[in-house]
Design brief:
The protein is an alpha/beta fold. It is 43% helix and 16% strand. It has one domain: 3-Layer(aba) Sandwich (Rossmann fold). It has eight helices and seven strands. The longest helix is centred in the middle third of the chain and has 29 residues. The radius of gyration is 17 Å and the shape is globular. Bound molecules: nicotinamide-adenine-dinucleotide. The site of nicotinamide-adenine-dinucleotide (NAD) has 28 residues, from helix 1 and helix 4.
């Protein structure tokens, strides 16, 4: 069976992935493309996106690089309208751009707080609102997947702004699912545990990381491909009656004491 056939096929659909220049966003873009979607690759730096575009086109996929700063409403509007002009109506948004800051709560400055919350929560909101407005105007519905975190469900040490931003994103997911259902727009969140990427590579390799790994019931950190099943489910029509939910992919970490 071809990767583009079957219940999780995205053939003929256009998707936008934010934060596609590295880590989970880059992986998600490759996954959606392999499932048949045309993909808008959005991030602040164009260079890695152009390289990813080449990689996707080498496999006969279709992708375009798009400059995007999710904290800037004008950049968000430009990005979504260019994606739509180039790829057609966007029916999938992987709202993935995010940053983390690890510091004891007493040391977090207002600037640190703003950077994390403006990117992870306000930025996700700005992109979701813009994409959903296009979906509603064109009347074709769609699926929004917000990249939250288990740290939006349970607390972690020394990441207060991150925990607040991801908790807020999960609450926003529910609010938007309830409100945009009338436009046939589904809004769900994915809550990964620790998946090795640039955002956490140094920490996971440290002694503290090793102690953490031993407390994960499945005894390992996640890999980007561990999210594939949940991502394809939420993005595809197989999830046509799933909205307002959070799928946790964390090796059972967050259910243990
Ligand atoms: P990463 O640092 O590799 O990727 C983050 C991406 O977001 C990059 O492409 C970066 O350029 C982009 N980005 C940051 N600020 C941006 C802005 N203002 N505008 C546009 N793009 C911006 O990290 P990652 O691990 O791939 O993280 C991706 C998402 O997954 C984040 O939202 C993160 O919080 C979430 N997440 C990661 C893990 C993990 O363990 N890796 C776990 C749970 C959730």
């Amino acid at each position: 069976m071809s990767a583009t056939a079957g219940p999780f096929s995205l053939e003929g659909k256009a998707a936008l992935v934010t934060g596609a220049s590295s880590g989970l966003g880059r992986h998600a873009a490759l996954l959606l493309s392999a499932a048949g979607a045309k993909v808008g690759l959005a991030a602040r730096r164009l260079e890695p996106l152009v390289e990813l575009e080449r990689q996707i086109e080498a496999k006969d996929g279709r992708a375009i690089p798009l400059r995007l700063d999710v904290t800037d409403p004008a950049s968000v509007a430009d990005c979504v309208s260019t994606a739509e002009t180039e790829l057609g109506p966007i029916s999938i948004l992987i709202n993935n751009a995010g940053v983390a800051e690890t510091k004891p709560a007493f040391e977090v400055s207002e600037e640190d707080w703003d950077r994390v919350v403006d990117t992870n929560l306000k930025g996700a909101w700005l992109v979701a609102q813009e994409v959903a407005q296009h979906m509603a105007n064109l009347g074709h519905g769609g699926s929004i997947v917000n990249m939250a975190s288990v740290l939006g469900l349970v607390a972690g040490q020394q990441v207060p702004a991150y925990v607040a931003s991801k908790g807020g994103l999960i609450a926003l997911t529910k609010a938007l699912a309830a409100e945009w259902a009338r436009h046939d727009i589904r809004v769900n969140a994915l809550a990964p545990g620790y998946i090795e990427t640039d955002i956490n590579r140094d920490f996971l390799a440290s002694e503290a990381g090793e102690r953490l790994r031993k407390r994960i019931p499945l005894r390992r950190f996640g890999r980007p491909e561990d999210l594939d099943g949940a991502l394809l489910l939420l993005a595809s029509d197989s999830a046509r009656y799933i909205s307002g939910t959070v799928i946790v992919v964390d090796g059972a970490q967050s259910v243990t004491l």
